[in-house]
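Quick start: what a row looks like.
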Amino acid sequence: MTRERARQLAEELVGRMTVEEKAGQLRFDAPAIERLGIPAYNWWNEGLHGLARGGTATSFPQAIGMAAMFDEELVEKIASVISEEARAKYNALSREGDRDIYHGLTLWSPNVNIFRDPRWGRGQETYGEDPTLTARLGRAFVRGLQGKGDTLKTAACAKHFAAHSGPEALRHGFDAQVSEKDLEETYLPAFRALVDEGVEAVMGAYNRTNGEPCCASSYLMKKLREEWGFRGHFVSDCWAIRDFHENHGVTADPTESVQLALKSGCDLNCGCTYRHVLRALEYGMISEEEITRSAVRLFTTRFLLGVLGEEGSEYDSISYDRIECPEHLETAHKAALRSCVLLKNDGLLPLDTETCGTIGVIGPNADSRAALIGNYHGTASRYVTVLEGIQDFVKDRCRVLYSEGCALCTDRVEPLAQPNDRIAEAIAVAKASDTVILVLGLNETLEGEEGDTGNSYNSGDKADLLLPEPQRILLSGVLAVGKPTVVILLAGSAIDLSEAQDKANAILLGWYPGAGGGSAIAKLLFGEVSPSGKLPITFYRNESLRDLPDFTDYSMVGRTYRYYRGEPLYPFGYGLSYGACEVTGLSADRTRAEVRIVNRGSRDTEDVIELYLRDEKSPFAPPNPILCGFQRIFLAAGEEKTVSVPIDEAAFTVVDDMGERIGGSGAWTLYAGFGGPDARTEALTGRKACAVPIRMTQ
């Protein structure tokens, strides 16, 4: 069904409604209109990394882990699985009369905010700190969710528009002051890319941006509809319109908030404020035409989904047995394998069951289901923790010992015990083992959304980049035993692992790998598959927080790999493998690079070619080279080949201080490697990126 046809049907249907009926349809929990054959519909559903909060569904790595794959094709496949399971649920449950929250076809994903500050608890929901990577993966996710059929498979939603990335504790009244340059260069590109992809919905953020609430910003709405040509519907974040009068103080009461939001173009209210729409109409603060406009947009989406009228959709036959089917579980497993990032390896990995001896698995995240799933998660029918994955993999070939070691963030596991009540056991396990696997990190109770799970760190944000103190004590104690040790970090953001980098033999970052993530991590540890993930964020040292701007400062100066001038612990784009892949040759024009690559190692591996561009002369260019292309590849041991990698055309532009995107200087250097062209990556990998100049006039 074309949008034009869907809009025509929506206009005809809305034209038969009373004003009271139209007003009721602007709420996320839209009631049925039985006389017109319109069933109830709840717009609120979540699909960040699998269907969330609505029962059983396939569980994928958290979004930040998906970003680490640097793999558009697999991200699109993941989103296609999510949309297929959403259809399977909708088809089955609606036949049972269940039209509840989290059971609809409008998925409020992806989150394409920029992870600008490592303390932000919701950064785990994003695709990292780079606008190009975020835009490309976000577009792939939208393609997967919305499908390629005559009707939408599901409706994707780009959120949270715009300039939204903490602090969580302040978000309901915070005003993000952002320069025109930073908006155009950093905060808006991914949203524009998703609009270009045809995303059906955009969600406004809680905060204000430059004085205007994001859900009623004339500046942002003009960008969205007039400049970018967005044709879908706009939804508020949940209870964000209530913030207009309760926290931002830009309106006096709910009716004024309705007036501001609806006139600005916010069509759908997640929350309760649009219950006052009819009162605002009665007071002459809004018009019926404005109510009608939003209702038509919303019903256009429902017709595009094929859930109204007689036509139906090609997705109506998707059956419930597609939920967690073998194909979907295999896709989740592949994603977990590709998302993990090998941060250090002195040769201990991969482990060999014939020689590793007794394995001691230690740590609060070793046997934790919560550490597998991150926030906005669904429910899996089976979970495989890291401990269980290792036990399953080695079977009877190795003895596996286990100790929890410590609580996640409190000083004792048992309330009646003395502090550090599991440390002695952990040390005993380490001493009795030949190889130690220490599993540390966070979960959604320590980083996440404000108020969502009672996060103990500053309303969801992190106070610093350190592991919780009990885990630091455990790490030091286990490393002091001196056994060959692998540290596994399960977390959704940067953690200072300096002590592990100095003293452990290997470090593997597993993110929140999904419900079956323990199986994937075991395969990586024992070399059945080579790690191939890359960091989509910078890992800073904790003391580097002194060098970063204040958390409330939305300026990009000094932030992320594009503007940070210090030495990170682990740089953006970094990640090791069991192969030894190198770039041996490079040629390029402004559209693509021809990259000669070789795997000099003895193991087959996947890896990611990364392209970076530096504008050598423009005063408006970031100080460091920026990501302009990437491609996941496979190289057998000893294999050499040439790969053609497209270059993002926007990389040859810069943004001036007025926010205008203009041509660059005409003098650029292009870099290609299996990491960034920075000194820290070179020091960690022992390999330097290949570089060629590109010179041409505008």
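That is the whole record. The domain at 581-695 is CATH 2.60.40.10 (Immunoglobulin-like). The first strand starts at residue 29 and ends at 30.
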